[in-house]
Design a protein that fits this description.
heterodimer, A: 287 residues, mainly alpha, ABC transporter involved in vitamin B12 uptake, BtuC, B: mainly alpha, 77% helix, disordered C terminus
Amino acid sequence: MTTSLLVQSTIIGLSIGAIYILMALGLTLMFGMMHIINFAHGAVYMLGAFVIYYLYFQGGVPYFAAFAAAMVLLGVFGYLVERGIYRPIKGGIEPTLVALLALSTFLVAAGYPVFGQLDKHVPPVFEGTRTILGVSLSVERLMIIPIAAALVACLYLFIKKTKIGAAMRAIEQDREAAALQGVNVNVVNGLAFAVGFALAAAAGALIAPIFKLDPAMGDQPLLKAFIIIILGGLGSIPGAILGGLMLGLIDSVVATAFGAEPAFLLSFVFIILLLLFRPAGLFGHAA
Amino acid sequence: MRRKIVIPVGLGGAMLLALLLPLFSSDYYVYLFALVFINVILASSLRPSLMCGQLNIGHSGFMSIGAYTSALLAKNLGMPFEITLLCGALLAAVIGLAIGYPALRLRGVYFAMVTVAFVEVIRLIAQIWVPLTNGMSGLSAIPKPNLLGMTLVTKTDQYYLVLFLMLVVLAVLWKLESSRLGLIWKSIGMADNLAQSLGVDIAKHKLLAFTLGCFFAGVAGAFYAHFIRFLFPPEFGFLMATNILVYNFVGGRGHFAGPIVGAIFLSLLSEPFRGSPYETIFFSIAMLATILFLPGGLITLPGRLGGLCASRTLAARVPSRVA
């Protein structure tokens, strides 16, 4: 592998890692508060990409407006999922997981008759290439990194500085105590669903101009996000960020050298080994 | 008193129907019911693991291992079905042990995620190991089951084979569940900390339940390979694994009959749209509706309806007594 190829795959790895981080953050936030894993996260990512397809490409709405619309629409959807699925099942972790799994398979399968069988493509938003360290890279790919970083920074500020963020942290520490202090646990859980869904939608919206769109497009990023949060430790936000960067780099560098499938197999083997020797993840506390 | 009569008569009737089915129905139904029986094996073999509170979303991966092992041994080495079946099931169990050992030390959510990733890994291996599995072109021309020196040529013969396999698997699982082991599984599922404090080795029993399920999934896969005679890696993906879970939840997790009822009911009802996205849509809606409105599953439906009727007749009787 030449140096320029290494530089190129590293930068692409960062951009892929940024997408994975957006996926993993929502999952880990929801896990920390409710001890559930949102199996529908991949489907939400897919829906985010399709919002861009219909609003930006078909509807002619400016890209950033379509991007915001994807986040808002799916955020509202997330809140409704909390009301309609999570809240009625109340407490049962296993039935909740299975219900979210069913929601995911439903959204993906319904995508075929609704969006059509053919793959969709969104034309590039940011044209051109830029040369970095002697390697030319498409601006489209590069733009993912600052946008994702801005979203992560917003999430950080939201969780650390706002009242709702404080309520989320309180629920994460002790649900009953938070409720006793006057936190409306249901509404805050709903908002966590909304934030998680909005971040997944953002990831899908960012990737829409780069990859082809089809209803099953969310499966792979979902699996990667699972691997990331196991790697980083469930519930840990710094863990999700570091895990996402690591996996993005492994993915891109190993895939450039050996192909995409060995990269995935390698990350799975890595997870099994990690679980054997450090079950709480690299940065997590005990499960 | 009535239960004592109804259950054996019902089971005997179902048995008789299953035995006689090929005599009075077309090949299509024989084929369909053979597939239903495969689904029953898959659904019931997931039950021990579910009883221990382990959400295994990777069951179809083990079926895939059984299917490919059995098909390749028969196709390339000409081995008889009784040996390929055993090899397929054993390999599925061994791999289940290897995955289960690290994963089962964890709480349910981690376990569920690892099993999802595992399905993908198995699918990818089947896809990229082209010299062995023929990759995405699919493995075709798998020999028909060759049992005890004779080849089962017709679908009817194969139907009786899978009926026999299903009955053996169900008998073994029933025997285990109604033994002390079943109680231990139930206790782990209800409160693993409590079970552990009473001296139950929960890791060992979870692993046993999981490996047992993998073994029988391998059995189902081995038969499937020689019955359909064509294997295609994506078929054993995440969707099939989800369906196996759906059978258990829709049928009901509270009783041994749950997965059996769920598998039969859903496989027959979804038959008109098998293979299309509408099958998945149907399954997901059935699943969501069951979890939200009938958490105990279909097997609790007669009891619930009975309860409803009883309360209504009671309500009707009360005023008359007053009058």
